[in-house]
Structures are given as C-alpha cells and as structure tokens.
Amino acid sequence: MKVEFAPLNIPLARRLQTAAVLQWVLSFLLLAQVCLGVIVFLIIYNYWFLYIPYLTWLYFDWQTPEQGGRRSDWVRSWTIWRYFKDYFPIHLIKTWDLNPSHNYIFGFHPHGVLVAGAFGNFCTNYSNFKELFPGLTAYLHVLPFWFRCPLFREYLMSSGPVSVSRRSVCHVLSKEGGGNISVIVLGGAEESLDAHPGKFTLFIRQRKGFVKIALTHGAYLVPVFSFGENELFKQVSNPEGSWLRTVQEKLQKIMGFALPLFHARGIFQYNFGLMPYRKPIHTVVGRPIPVHQTLHPTPEQVEELHQTYMEELRKLFEEHKGKYGIPENETLIFR
Predict the structure, then answer these.
(1) Domain assignment present for 60
(2) Is 37 within the bounds of a domain?
(3) What is the pTM of this model?
(4) Contact at 8 Å (CB) between 171 and 218?
(5) Fewer CB atoms near the end CB (10 Å): N or C, the chain?
C-alpha cells in the first residue's frame, strides 16, 4: 500500500485544527489513565499533602456529576475548541423553534465511535447553539464510569457533561420554569459497535427509559440526527455473530462501555491512524414532541410515546438525508 503523506505547505489554521482534534482523541483514549497514574504516584511516594486534601474533597464532591455538574465557560471558550469544530467541520441545524419555558430531552443519533458532533455542539461555546436556542442550556449525559476517575472527572465536567444516570437526568429536567435540555445518546455503547460508514443502524427499540422520564417530568422529546457521525472512522469488520463482535459484546456487559476497533487517518499521512477523517457533521435538531406530565405513566402510555418518537426520528432522517449525500434508498434500521 502506498502511503499518502500530507503536503508540507498546509496552512497553519489546518495544522491547528489537526492539533486540536489530536488532543481530544488522546484525552478520550489516555487522559483518564494518566490522571489515575498521577494519583497512584502521589500515594506511592507519599505526597500526602497533595492527595489527602484532594481525596477528602472528592468524597464530598462525589455526587456533583448527578447534580448538574460544574461547567466552566472559560474552558468551553478555549480557542482550541474552535479549531476542533472547524476540523470536520461541525454544524448545528435548527428545524423548529423551542420554547425556553419547557424542559427537553434531545435524543441524539447515531452514537458513532467518539460522538464528536454531540461534544462539538453541546460542550463548547463555538457552535451556534446559543443563537439558535436562546434561553436554553444543554447538558450532554455520558457514562457514569468517566466521573469515577480522579482528576479526569474535573476536566470532563468543566466542558459541561454530566452523568447519564436516571438521577442526573431527573435533576436536569426538574428545573422550575424550564430552560434545560438533557442530551442523551440513546444508542449508547452498544450502538458504537455498528458505527460503520454508510450504516444507519440505531439501537432504539428497547430504549424506553428516556420516554418514561419525559412523561414523569413533562419534558418535550426532540429527535436529533447527526449526519456524518458514522463517517469519521472505519472499524474492523465485526458483523453480528462473528467472534470479534461476541468478544466486544461480552466486554461491554462486563465493563459498561464498548471497545470498537476503529481506525482512520494519521497526523502526517492519510492512510492509517486514530485521527478522524475530515468529514462534515450536520447535527439536525428536529420538531419537539409535546409531552403532558404524567407522574405514573402506564406501560401503554410509554409504548405509545416511544412509537411516536421513532416515527418523528424516521421523518427527520428521510426529510434531510438528501441534503447530506445519503442515497434515496437508504433508510434507518431500528434494533
């Protein structure tokens, strides 16, 4: 295979975009382990004046990711996130006005490998979220696992993510007078194993917990489809029933998160590496589904609203797929 190297005369802005995405990928893959290593180092070499105050504070701060987190506008406004957004680039598209007097659940699809669109649009101040949805604050819900790692949790929370636990979602949606959005990647880790270019398989049929929470809080449901999310990486072939998929699914059940074997381009060449491809991401926010608060919803009410949500999600995909180069014969597969 002939290696295609990047030209030497690449503009500085594009180099900075590559550097921004590189640090993001490395943070996702390695920063938690590095932070844990720092704590272990401090304990082994008995830097008690550093780790004892931090671990004491951590004990009292443990529930913060389930209580709205601790976002920092300063971190969210780092220039590096502007370069991150421009690398792909990432776009946020509104199709309907949202009334800030309500709370909402954004169902984000698909998961992709690293959920770049969700992070770029809802965890930085460089998307046009505030202009499109004035008076609303978005909270991206991620696996609780990430908040159990000392030090790393502080960095993660600073961008705005909170836990995806039921308690955390209920906290966000309990805001009096509305104005909050819970952004939930509904397909979860399981869906990431099907994040292949050109595939549109969504794990949604058995995901009904978000519907019940929406009913109990009267939160409007909004389908969101991120076109291009599955195009950023390639995965080692892992069809259903293969030995690789079986191992991945078993590991996912044990650890709570999936391990897709992904690859894309490198830093200085375009043939192999862990850098995502420069593919545009268009995150389209659909029409809100009004939800009447029902403190004790029946299974039938949950099922009815769940079906309505899937229908609206499919309509959103069909209405916009042609704009983003998806063939007319392609459609969503609900699993």
Answers:
(1) yes
(2) yes
(3) 0.96
(4) no
(5) N
